[in-house]
Specification:
With 76 residues, the protein is α+β, with helices and mostly antiparallel strands. The chain is 36% helix and 16% strand. The protein has a two-stranded parallel sheet.
């Protein structure tokens, strides 16, 4: 239950878009092969269920801080 009624979401709310942002261990790049099989299956089933409701999905990888630092060091 939300304690602030001004910030409540209607019961029939459906988002138009959902973004799944995934951070992999050791800063690995996100690819279909880099997800654990169970995670890939769950993500695919969730995407299919959301698409059936007209929701657009996007899956993006989150770079680890160490990968971002390495990119900054290379650019310098």
């Amino acid at each position: 239950m939300n304690s602030d009624p001004a910030r409540s979401i209607p019961e029939d709310f459906t988002p138009r878009r959902v973004v799944f942002a995934i951070l992999l261990k050791d800063g690995a790049k996100l690819t279909p092969d880099s997800l654990f099989p169970f995670s890939a299956i769950t993500l695919a089933q969730t995407a299919k269920a959301l698409a059936a409701r007209g929701v657009t999905i996007e899956v993006i990888g989150i770079e680890s801080e160490s990968a971002q630092s390495a990119m900054r060091d290379e650019a310098a």
